[in-house]
Amino acid sequence: MGWIDVILGRSKPAEPNLDALFALPSAAVTLEAATGFAPTGVGSVSYRAAEGGAFATLESEVKALLGDRVEETRDDYGYSWLLVRRAPEAIGDLVTELHAVNSSLEDAGFGPSLLCSLVSFADRRGRRLAVVYLYKRGTFYPFAPLDGQTRDNALELQARGVLEGELKIEEDLSRWFPVWGAPGL
């Protein structure tokens, strides 16, 4: 970034760091100890599907790699989701597979199509929580949906406090986008 950019108030966008996903297993232990939220064994990657044979081939290869542990869905906003299922105690394997999906898309030149990845958690009372990784920001945030299209803001802030030492948390709360209808939540 040059001095002209500084004068004009421009900033360089954050670089995504997909390896940050590997911090999730230890963060999950901290989250469970502090709040009772345990991994459900479900995670997903959201992206905008591209037209063309190269993207379709890549998508097929990713699905073949993950086998019957993966499902594809599409949300109301036109984003595709690859939902991955593992045993709840295999969060390390789940994160590795989510990383593989993200890396495959990025390495093939489709990184700008990536939106987010998330890992789902639940507590004994049935409350749901997702830890969301924003690809374009390189940050995480908690998302706690309630019935309808409302969220449990107090739980999200509590989870932020617990996860701050473990993950790079998104500081701008306006970027804590609700991921209504995300598969696995």
Low-confidence stretches: none
- Summed up, the helix count is 5
Q: What share of the residues does DSSP label as strand, in percent? A: 15-25%
Secondary-structure class: alpha+beta
Query: Which term fits the overall shape?
Result: globular
User: Strand sequence of the main sheet, in spatial order?
Assistant: 2-3-1-4-5-6
Explain how this protein is built.
This protein is of the alpha+beta class and 185 residues long. The protein has one domain (18-175). It contains five helices and six strands. The chain has helices at 3-7, 24-35, 53-66, 91-110, 153-163, and strands at 38-47, 70-74, 80-85, 114-122, 128-134, 139-143. A six-stranded antiparallel beta sheet has the order 2-3-1-4-5-6.
Features:
185 residues, alpha+beta, 6-stranded antiparallel β-sheet, 5 helices, 6 strands, globular
Question: What is the element layout, followed by pairings?
Answer:
Blueprint: H1 3-7, H2 24-35, E1 38-47, H3 53-66, E2 70-74, E3 80-85, H4 91-110, E4 114-122, E5 128-134, E6 139-143, H5 153-163
Antiparallel strand pairs: 1-3, 1-4, 2-3, 4-5, 5-6
Helix pairs in contact: 2-5, 3-4
What's this entry about, in short?
Pfam families: PspAB. This protein has 185 residues and is an alpha+beta fold. The chain has helices at residues 3-7, 24-35, 53-66, 91-110, 153-163; strands at 38-47, 70-74, 80-85, 114-122, 128-134, 139-143.
